[in-house]
Each structure stands twice: as C-alpha cells, then as structure tokens.
Amino acid sequence: MKPACLSLLACAALSAVSLALANEQKNWNEKADAYAELGKAPEKARNRANPLENDPEAVAAGRLLFEDHCAECHGDNAEGGKRGPSLRAPEVQNSTPGTIFWLLTNGVVRRGMPVWSRLPEPQRWQLVRYLKSLGIAQTTREREAAPKQ
Amino acid sequence: MKPLRNSLFVAAMLFFSPACGVRSLAAQESPYFVTYDHYLEEPGNLEIEYFSTFGTQRGGNNFHSYWTEFEYGATAWWTTEFYLDAQTTFHDSTVYSGFKWENRLRPLQREHWINPILYVEYEDLNGTDKTLKEIVGHDVEADFLVSNAEARREHKREVELKLILSSTVKGWNISENIISEKNLSNEPWEFGYALGVSRPLSLKGSAKRCSFCRQNFVAGVEMYGGLGDRYSFGLKDTSHYLAPAVAWNLPNGWTLRVSPAFGLNDNSHKLLLRWGVSREINGFGGMVRRLFGAKS
After folding, report:
1. Residue A11 pLDDT more than 80?
2. Count of domains in chain A?
3. Cβ-Cβ contacts under 8 Å, A15 against chain B
4. pLDDT at site B19
5. What is the pTM of this model?
C-alpha cells in the first residue's frame, strides 16, 4: 500500500476516534462530582469581586456570550445538556462570582470543558453576571422524578 | 481540476451548513495566519477555513496559493486538522500541492502565565507548495523560480514539530512558536520561528447582536522567518516577514481575516497578501454521530 494511502487511512481512523471521544455522551446531571472542580478554586480567586456587578448591560451581554459559547454543551437555558452539567444547580449558583470566573478561565480540560481565557476578562465577568442572574432551577432529571400534580 | 473541485466542496460546506440544521454562532478567532496561540478548537466543533496568499516574485511569475483547512476539536486538549493545498502561478499553471495533517495537544490542565501547546504535523507535498504557512531553514524567494512542471517532480514527506507558547494578559495575546521541520528523505532538521501579538478592539461584550461592534475586530501583528538548519543555524540566507493582521468575527460563525506581509530582507518576497474566510460549526461531532444512528 502506498504511503499516501496509509496516511489517509490513518487520518480517517484518527478522525473516527476523535469524533467518538468528543461525543462520549455523559449524563452530567447524574454525576455527583460534576461540580468538584468548583471546590478547587484558590481562595484568592474565590474572593475576587465582579467588577461589572453594577453594570446595567452586563447581564444582557452575558446572555449573548452564553448563547454563543456555552449553550451548545450546557443547554439553551443553562439547565444542562448531554455534554455539560446544569449551571443552575445550587453548586454553581451558591458559588462566589470569583469561583465561577476562575472556572471559566481555567476550564476543566480533562473533562471536556475548554479554557475560556480566549474571551477577554470583562466578557468573562459579563458571563458570570448572566449565570448568577439565572437562579437555582431543577435539573431535567429532578423534574422527571418529581411527583406529577 | 482538483484544486477547483476542492474549493467548490469547501464553499458548499461553508454556505449550506445552516440548511442542515447546524448551529453556527459567533466565533472568537485570532487574526494570525502563521502564528498559533494556545487556544484549541472547542470539543465537537468543526471549523472550515479557506485561505489565500498572493505573492510577488522577483525574476519570475507572481503566484496565488490557497488552502482549505478542516479543524476539529477532538477533545478540550486535542485539536486535529487536515489541509489541502494548491496554487496558481501566473503565466504557468494551477496545480494541487498536497495535504497536511496537524495535531495540537495541550499538556497542562489549567491556564498559566505562559501556556505550552505541542504541535505535530505530517506533510505530503510536491515541490509546488507555495502556501508559506511556515518559513523554515533557508526558505528564500528564489526557491519559487522553478516552473510548476519541474517542481511537481519533487515529492516531499515532512514532519513538523512546534512548541507553541502563548499568554493572554489584559486582553493582549502574545504568542511565540518555535518550529522544527524534517524532510524524511535524509535531509537535516530545519528551524524557524513565528511571533504574534493581538488584541480585540474592545474587551467588553455588547448587549446587542451586532456585526460592526469593536469587540468583533481583533487586530495584531505577526513576524515570522527561518533560522537555518542543523548545520548552519542562524539568520544567514534566511527570509523574514512582518505582517499586520486583522480578523473580523461576525455573528453566525463567520470570520474574515486579512494580512499583508512585508519581506524584511532581500531573500524575502516583497509582499505576501493573505486573506481568508472561515466558519465554525458547533456540535459537528454530535451531528455526525446522529447521522450514523447514535441517540441524541
């Protein structure tokens, strides 16, 4: 077999593996440790205040950033998707703005969440404002398990 | 006709992807053409890119080289990319130059003040490649004086390794790439470099969707060139370029880039005018899985 054919075969094989890896489906809402990374934020990062706390446009801007960069994995309403946990869970909503900012900046690379330092700092703080504005909501699984009225 | 066919295929993918229910939202791309920063493609996303370089040639025919890239985020720490290269040399011919397969790996889990990325690429090209995507060794303008018919006879299989170092400070991205390349047919290791600095025109996001907001424009400058080879390391007989660059990230996933590169010495092309268009498709991996019967 020609080296060029071998190379193409290798490309195809690796692409197939990468597709499978990228889409390994996880029910994040069932994983107790989905939020463990939040607990790893250093104290200095946890205590950082959001400099855009009083910016009247921050939530609206954060919503657009969420739609562009986060909704694909975390769901349109941030209630969790097949590739990312709910961001309306108490673990996230009760975290300090600094903790969420730290997680956005560093990602959880080994578990599929990319680093978002690509977004400038003010945009990450806008995202934090938006996420904190959502409040706690039941996950889809909790809703399904709840007794129907 | 291969280059034309490839270009048409990419154009079709770019333009008709919304019709397939593919989600395409604002990308956040750097303006660099040659330099790499430490940001990998988001997992499951596919970015389809088309780039062109128009180059002037002293003592020969100017050329227009073009390549398409399919960049896929395999995981949050691994991006794989496939290239198809072609070129047209004016008053000569249009030829397909070959393909490249690139992989970028992120060894560290968290952000640091400087972030390393490991880059491995396999290239299977003929001698007509004029993309100038990386300048290494003693690559000089005079190399392109050979006609396409003659250059096609040369077949190169090369391995390229890069150490990408990149930092982002107060909105500024500063990237340094150290490049080494080896032709597998018993030629010495060649070396090169690429440096880049860029920043969005505004750091805050807008509260409304807009095409012309300052946050959508990223401006920067690149410098790249060769550093000789294993036996003659240094700046002698090497070429170097300085290139301002701008990227315009449109809502809906399109990015336009333009960069004029100016040769810094007599071994360099006087001008390389580069431009490109790319489109990011969110959730491409999931779409392919569903196509093959996986549950959504």
Report:
1. no
2. 1
3. 72, 80, 82
4. 44
5. 0.87
Q: How far B57 CA lies from chain A's nearest CA (Å)?
A: 31
Q: Which domains does chain B have, with CATH numbers?
A: 2-291 (2.40.160.40)
Asked whether residue A17 is domain-assigned, the answer is: no
Residue B176 β-bridge partners = B165, B195
Least CB-CB distance to B43: which of A67, A114, A119? A114
Q: Which of B76, B209, B286 sits opposite A107 (nearest CB)?
A: B76
Task: Band the pLDDT of A62: cuts 50, 70, 90.
Answer: very high
Write out pLDDT tens, residues B247-258: 999 988 899 999
* pLDDT category of residue A22 using cuts at 50, 70 and 90: low
Interface test with A, best of B23, B25, B121, B216 (most A CBs within 10 A): B25
Under 8 Å between Cβ of B248 and B216: yes
Closest-CA residue of chain B to A9: B101
Q: Using CB atoms and an 8 Å cut-off, which of residues 12-41 of chain A contact chain B?
A: 14-15, 17-23, 25
Domain housing A64: 28-145
**Pick from A35-39, A138-142, B58-62: least confident:** A138-142
User: By the 8 A CB rule, do A121 and A127 touch?
Assistant: no
Q: Would residue A137 count as lying in a domain?
A: yes
Cβ pair B74:A22 closer than 8 A:
yes
Partner residue facing B206 (CB), from A61, A69, A121: A61
- Identify the segments of chain B with pLDDT beneath 50: 1, 4, 15, 17-21
CA B189 to chain centre: 21
CATH label of the domain that carries residue A118: 1.10.760.10
**Is A111 within a domain?**
yes
Residues of B in contact with A12 (CB under 8 A): none
In single-letter form, the type of residue at position B273 comes to: L
pLDDT, residue A141, reads 58
Which residue from B minimizes the CA distance to A57? B207
**How are beta strands B63-75 and B94-105 bridged, if at all?**
unpaired
Structure tokens given for B294? 């996986």
The identity of residue B238, as a single letter, is T
Contacts of B75 in chain A (CB under 8 A): 18, 21-22, 112
The interface pTM score, or ipTM, of the predicted complex is 0.86
Q: Is residue A2 in a domain? A: no
Residue A67 touches partner B, C-beta closer than 8 Å: yes
